[in-house]
Design brief:
434 Repressor (Amino-terminal Domain), 44% helix, DNA-binding, Peripla_BP/Lac1_sug-bd_dom, transcription
Length: 335
């Protein structure tokens, strides 16, 4: 038993003094088609409004063989970049007539599989996924079940459509500009080395050194994962190795930057911090930091919009191409 009272179409019909069929036609936008009197339409709509009643989406969607839902799987809900993606995507989905389910994989393959299987069980109409592995066969298998678009990360050796920021080019610009200031030591803190963001961001970092014809010290490249505790750990290892901070630090995500700043704060080192702090991804709170931090800013709105566009196109039976979305640099320190 429940104390809640759920109104049905039959209840609205009774209150309006019409048949259930008439009430259904009015509330499902078919009054004009079936030539229902304007006074009847007004009466039914007034009763529905007074009782905050909406027709059952389940019944309507059952007839269309669609669930009216889409899924988004992200590695971390606390990751600011992924939160911005979900925030931008949800109203776009709603405007397109879909409810968005957002779930987290915690950047773990087994949890990602469970998350996708749960969404499949709910019969979502399409899936947008930030992949946490390069298991191309697994993602291809899911793509046979429903429209699937990869977001923020692509899968190496996969033909699945993706919408990803042009990370390599912007990281190259950021690092090359820093080297041009006479900096000869930039520590690199990255995530899982086999994931596409790690490959792209490291490629931009390495290309900048090559372009400037400077020797890159491989001992200053750390890669672990994108958790903030890994940023803390890599900063600790780097400080121990050098006995000081390097001239500059680049973190491949804002979550790693959080860990780096936590280490500096915990050890009261801001006075001796690197001259140049650089990061992929941005946050307005960085404007309040005592140190200027130059960052690569992703266009979350475009990542969301282009991902949804491709899902809708796939649902319509169209073929889609992958897309590189332009990012830009927030220069808080530029000589």
């Amino acid at each position: 038993m429940t104390a809640f009272q759920r109104l049905t179409m039959a209840d609205i019909a009774q209150l309006a003094g019409v048949s259930k069929t008439t009430a259904s036609m009015v509330l499902n936008g078919q009054a004009e088609q079936y030539r229902i009197a304007a006074s009847t339409v007004a009466r039914v709509r007034q009763v529905a409004a007074e009782h905050h009643f909406q027709p059952s989406a389940s019944a309507r969607l059952l007839r269309s063989r669609r669930s009216g839902t889409l899924g988004l799987v992200v590695p971390e809900l606390t990751n600011f970049a992924h939160a911005l993606l979900a925030q931008a995507l949800e109203p776009l989905c709603r405007d397109a007539g879909f409810q968005l389910f957002v779930v987290s994989s915690n950047d773990q393959a087994d949890m990602e599989t469970k998350a996708v299987e749960q969404l499949l069980a709910r019969q979502v109409d399409g899936l947008m996924l930030v992949p946490c592995t390069n298991n191309a066969k697994l993602y291809a298998k899911w793509a046979k079940r429903l429209p699937l678009v990869l977001v923020d990360r692509r899968v190496i050796d996969s033909n699945l459509p993706f919408v990803v920021s042009n990370a390599e080019e912007q990281v190259f610009t950021l690092i090359e500009h820093t080297l041009a200031q006479g900096v000869t030591e930039i520590a690199y803190f990255g995530g899982q080395m086999l994931l596409s963001p790690s490959i792209d961001r490291l490629a931009g970092y390495q290309r900048a050194w090559q372009t400037r014809q400077l020797a890159l010290n491989p001992a200053l490249i750390w890669q672990r994962d994108y958790q903030n505790q890994s940023g803390y750990a890599m900063m600790s290892e780097c400080y121990t190795l050098l006995g000081r901070y390097p001239e500059a630090i680049f973190t491949a995500s804002i979550s790693l930057l959080e860990g780096v700043l936590a280490f500096m704060n915990e050890h009261n080192h801001f006075n001796s911090a690197p001259q140049h702090l650089l990061s992929f991804d941005d946050h307005r709170l960085l404007d309040c930091m005592p140190l200027p931090i130059n960052t690569v800013v992703q266009d979350s709105a475009q990542l969301a919009a282009q991902s949804l566009q491709r899902i809708l196109a796939l649902l319509a039976g169209e073929t889609v191409e992958s897309s590189w979305v332009a990012a830009h640099i927030n220069w808080r320190q530029k000589v």
